[in-house]
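Work Package 4 report. The design task specified in the project plan requires that, given a folded chain encoded as structure tokens, an amino acid be chosen for each position. We show below one input record used in the internal validation round.
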């Protein structure tokens, strides 16, 4: 597994860890101007669908996902179970591509609307990783504001994502 893929999977696992015990009711609460946590789950699924499912594999699992929870979409409070199901399905299909990633591939570019994207695949992967960490922090803040206690502290066990050179 490429080291960046290991880091993406670790960021995902921390995303899941940070939301353990969350109820549908609390996942749908919106503390403006932030989005609801359930929206954040779908939002990250939308990014992964665009990058690792559509761009990389020419597949679209959820055609309306970007309209529902993509950047610039209207704020909404979707079902927690629905968004987790979408996220799990998208990330499972994304993993079929991510399992093949090599250093050489990360230097290549996807095309979108007939034009080469500005960022290469490696930069897009970093963007996806950082996007997870952004929402990890946001979700922790939302949960704290909702009065949740016993939340994960700092970064979890990285034994499956140890640093290694390419």
């Amino acid at each position: 597994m490429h080291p960046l893929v290991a880091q993406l999977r670790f960021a995902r696992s921390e995303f899941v860890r940070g939301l353990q015990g969350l109820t549908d009711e609390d996942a749908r609460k919106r503390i403006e101007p932030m989005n609801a946590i359930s929206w954040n789950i779908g939002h990250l699924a939308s990014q992964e669908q665009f990058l690792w499912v559509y761009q990389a594999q020419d597949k679209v699992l959820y055609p309306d996902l970007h309209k529902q929870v993509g950047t610039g979409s209207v704020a909404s409070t979707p079902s927690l179970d629905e968004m987790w199901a979408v996220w799990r399905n998208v990330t499972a299909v994304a993993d079929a591509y991510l399992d093949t990633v090599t250093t050489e591939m990360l230097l290549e570019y996807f095309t979108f609307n007939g034009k080469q994207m500005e960022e290469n695949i490696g930069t897009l992967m970093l963007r996806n990783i950082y996007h997870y960490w952004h929402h990890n922090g946001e979700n922790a803040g939302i949960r704290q504001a909702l009065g949740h206690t016993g939340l994960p502290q700092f970064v979890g066990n990285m034994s499956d994502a140890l640093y290694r050179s390419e």
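The two ends are 10 Å apart (CA to CA). Validation will be extended to a larger panel in the next phase.
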